[in-house]
Amino acid sequence: MNATIRTTIAILAPVLALALAGCSSTPAAPAQAASTQAESLAVTDAWVKATDTDMTAGFGLLENIGDEPLTIVTASAEFSDMLELHETVENESGEMKMQPKEGGFVIQPGESLTLQPGGDHIMIMALAKPLTAGDAVTITLGFDDGSTVAMDAVVKDYTGANESYEPDTSMDMGDGE
């Protein structure tokens, strides 16, 4: 019986030693998560024009700090049910008009996009309430890879460019009407 126990121990000892050694080894490093477009966007100087009407716009500097192009295709916010990415272009008669940006905003690696009055901007329509200077709001930007990033913005008064974000019969909003 003693010989049987010794033989069993002699056979099991190396197996147990290997099993215990496996438990004490350093775990493998977790695989790095795939990079998203949202991780490559730096947002600075974000702001929204104060308004007591149901329409305004969002502005700021968007910078691609990554190695691949970024394509922003959507914008959303809790304070409005309708946001669109807009550009301002000259029409056939030489007038400037706002229209949705076909294909979204594309920002190449190392480049930036300035959202500004009279240029590219985030059109905010159907506001749930007036936006007062000093308010803080968040606009969520969506990318074509499905990722999103929050753009925290301050609401401020702005009288430059004398822009009105009120639709009227003389303003072509690019909606075909």
TrEMBL record:
Coiled coil: none annotated. Gene3D superfamilies: PCu(A)C copper chaperone. The keyword Signal applies. Keywords: Signal. Residues 1-33 form the signal peptide. PROSITE patterns: PROKAR_LIPOPROTEIN. The keyword rRNA-binding does not apply. This is Copper chaperone PCu(A)C. It comes from Agromyces aureus. The lineage of its organism: Bacteria, Bacillati, Actinomycetota, Actinomycetes, Micrococcales.
